[in-house]
Amino acid sequence: MSNATELIHSIPVDPFTGSISVPIYQTSTFVQEAPGVNKGYDYARTGNPTRNVLEQLIATLEKGTTGIAFGSGLAAIDAVIKLLESGDEILAVDDIYGGAFRLFTKVYQKFGITVNYVDTTNLSNIVDAITPKTKLIWLETPTNPTLKISDIEAIGKIAKANNALLCVDNTFASPALQLPIPLGADIVVHSATKYLGGHSDLIAGLVVTKTIELGEKIKFIQNASGAILSPFDSWLVIRGIETLHLRVKQHCVNALVIAEYLEQHPDVEKVFYPGLKTHVNHDIAKKQSTGFGGIVSFTLKNDTIEAATSFVTSTKYFKLAESLGCIKSLLCHPATMTHKSIPEVTRKSAGVADSLIRLSVGLEESDDLVKDLGQAFERVQRLKSNKEFKCIN
Question: Which listed residue (41, 42, 45, 303) is catalytic?
Fold first, then answer.
C-alpha cells in the first residue's frame, strides 16, 4: 500500500454514525457512568475524540507510537524541552527557526539549560561539541531558512552512543517526503500550521515519539501545562492532511522550476534548494527523502537589507507574510521577519545574509510565478536606477 493510500484510509469512519468526515466533538467535559467510569474521556484538556484521531493519524504517518497535538508549533517545542532538567545541554543546529532560538535563549537558558549551536551538516562538529551533559540534539532538516540538510541516520547513531535524544523538526519536509523516526530520531515535531494544515487557516503543533514511554512523558507535560489543540483546529489539520501528498508533490514540482530559474538569474548570488545538484547536501537529501520540498531561498548580489526589502515588496503573486507551506505562494525576508530575534552576528554566521529571501512556493502555475519574480527583479532594477539618477542630479 502506498503512503498516499495509507494516509487516506488511516482517517477512520465514525463508528457511531458512519460519517466519513471525522466529527468535531466540541465539548469541554464528558458524562461519567460513575466516578472514574467513562467511555475513555473525562475532560477535554486531557483528551478529546477529534484530537485523538489527529494524534493517531500523525503517529501512523510518521511511523511513531504516540502523537500529541498542541496549540502551536512552539507549544510542541516547549513540551519537548520540558523533558530536560537544569544543568542539561541541548546541541542544536545553527541555522534554526527564530522562534525556537528565542524560546531556548530567552526562556530556558535562565533555568540552567545550555544550548550549543553548531553546523550539523558536518558530523565532526557534533562529535566535538557533544558532552556528557548533552541530553538532546535538535535538528531542522531542511533548515529554516538556508535549507541545510543533516544526515538524520548518522546523527541518530551519535545521539544513541551518547545517551542523548534526537529530535527532528520535520515541518519543511512533512511525512510526505521524510520519515525521521525510522532513520533514528526519537522525537519528531511539526508546526502543523504549515504543510500539514496547508491552507493558512489555523495554528497548531504536533509531537510524535518513537516509544510509548516517551510519548507518555510528553502527554503528561501537555496535560499538566494545558497547551492543547482545540477540536475544530484538530479537524482542520485532519482535513488538510487528507490532501497532503497531492499538495506536496506539486509544491516540489513548482519549487524546482523556481530554483532553476533563480540559479540562472544575473541578480542572484546564491540559491538554496536541496533539489539542485549544486546544493552541497543534495546527495544526503536524496538519500533520506523522497522529494525536496516547496521552500526555496536565495540571496541577491546586492547583499543589503534595502535591496531585499525592495524585492519582497515588488511581487504580486508571492505575498509578503510570515509562515509557509500553504497553497498560496508566500515570501519573507528572514533578517527582518522570522529571524529578527536572532542577533545579527549569530544570524550571519549561520548563513542568513541581509539579502536572503525565503520563498514558500505555492500551487499556482509555475510560469506565472516565474513571471512574477521576473517583474520584481525588473522593478528593483528600476528603483535602483532612479535612486542613482537622483543622486547624480
Answer: 45
Q: How far apart are CA 100 and CA 77, in angstroms?
A: 7
Beta bridge partners of 166: 137
Question: Within its chain, how far is the Cα of 269 from the centroid?
Answer: 25
Share of the chain above pLDDT 70, in %: 98
- Helix 49-61 vs helix 231-241: angle between axes, to the nearest 10 degrees? 30
| Structural contact between residues 273 and 145, judged by C-beta atoms closer than 8 angstroms | no
CATH superfamily of 245-392: Aspartate Aminotransferase, domain 1 (3.90.1150.10)
Q: Out of 88, 151, 169, 354, which one is annotated catalytic?
A: 169
Give me the catalytic one of 194, 219, 347, 358: 194
273 an active-site residue? Answer: no
- pLDDT over threshold 80, residue 393: no
Q: Domain 3-241's class? A: alpha beta
Tell me if residue 108 is catalytic. no
Please write the tens of the pLDDT for every residue from 46-83.
999 999 999 999 999 999 999 999 999 999 999 999 99
The answer to whether 45 is a known catalytic residue is: yes
pLDDT at 387 over 70: no
Active site residue 267: no
* pLDDT for position 331: 98
Catalytic residue among 97, 108, 117, 195: 97
Residue extents of the structural domains in the chain: 3-241, 245-392
Sheet strand arrangement including 187-191: 66-70, 205-209, 187-191, 165-169, 134-140, 89-93, 114-118
